[in-house]
Design brief:
Blueprint (H helix, E strand, L loop, with lengths): L1 E6 L5 H15 L3 E6 L5 H5 L3 E5 L13 H8 L7 E8 L5 H12 L3 E9 L5 H12 L2
Parallel strand pairs: 1-2, 1-3, 3-4, 4-5
This protein binds flavin mononucleotide (FMN).
Length: 138
């Protein structure tokens, strides 16, 4: 079972989520590659059994617009039939960016297994939630 985590993070919260989710996946025996968006070839990402994508809520309830969203746009035509899970950190919103993102991936034909949002930095209960999210995906 090969899993790939691709994420963007400005202040480290979504990056922390990525690390905790990786731990959960590894607890279940998955081989995990984790990389900042742009670091891994698309072919390697798209070949994974499970594709985890992480991005915080930015702009006004949208994906980060300089790096992550352009990459998302460039690969979403190849997402049909892929199993994905989405995650990210937010602050003052109500999670609208994640609802929009789930719909977008479903429209692209992806099988969105699950999604997780965490308010700011994962800690305590939300830290545990991230590990359990990773475990629950396998
Ligand atoms: C430019 C900018 C725009 C943001 N827009 C939103 C927003 O629309 N809704 C929201 O809930 N949080 C918003 N936030 C808060 C971030 O989602 C939050 O700080 C998050 O923890 C950042 O994750 P990161 O540490 O992985 O970069 C914004 C933050 C920045 C810097």
């Amino acid at each position: 079972m090969k899993s790939v985590i691709v994420y963007w993070s400005g202040t480290g919260n979504t990056e922390m989520m990525a690390g905790l989710i990786q731990k959960g996946l590894e607890n279940k025996g998955a081989a995990v590659t984790k990389a900042f968006v742009g670091e891994l070839p698309d072919d390697e990402i798209l070949a994974a059994d499970l594709i985890l994508l992480g991005c915080p809520s930015m702009g006004d309830e949208v994906l980060e617009e300089a790096e992550f969203d352009p990459w998302m746009t460039s690969v979403e035509g190849r997402m049909a039939g892929k199993t994905v899970a989405l995650f990210g950190s937010y602050d003052w919103g109500d999670g609208q960016w994640m609802r929009t993102w789930v719909e977008r991936m479903e429209s692209a034909g992806a099988n969105v297994k699950s999604s997780l949002i965490v308010n700011l930095t994962p800690e305590g209960d939300t830290e545990q939630q991230c590990v359990q999210f990773g475990e629950s995906l396998l």
